[in-house]
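Per reviewer request, we include the raw input and output of the structure prediction for the construct analysed in the revised manuscript.
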Amino acid sequence: MKFGFLLTFFCFLCIFNLNAQKFEGGVMLGLVGSQVAGDQYSGYNKAGINAGGWISLNIGARSKMQMELGYIQKGSRENPDYEKDKLDAYLMRLGYINMPLLYRIQYNELLSFETGLSLNILIHSNEKFNGYETVESTFSLTNLCFLAGLSVRINDNLRINLRTDNSLFSLRKRTVTGDVWRLWDHGQFSDALVLSAYYRL
């Protein structure tokens, strides 16, 4: 898996260097709020980070294709609320190599919109219930996510991006209690809101 990541990153850099006159690119850093549909909890309570690099290619007067390679943290969190008689604590941590491919359209000088798909490759996971590690069902090593969002231009080199990131397939290899149905699959699904700064180098 590490070799595959390094090879992908090397190709990513080669494409950028060989086509520098056609592409623009840079780095990104942001915050993630995530939850899991089907885990019987609710709320984007699990905080994480989103970091990596991106390149984009103009394919029209107002449209671009963008590819990213980064690291994103997702999962779920439920803290005890003694006033509501909720005593349980739950924490799911998932770390992915994230490879989005996006179509972006420039609406005006300030706003642009985007949509696309992202391949997620799981590199670490951890699940705790009331402080004790548990694995109700092993997690899938890969997933495909639907992305949609918008960007606000701050200046020529910086823009702020807000997107939703939703898994299309179950996070787990087997069904568990609380599973829900999404599109064509039954299981638990990751939903995330991602706020990131994109800087053009």
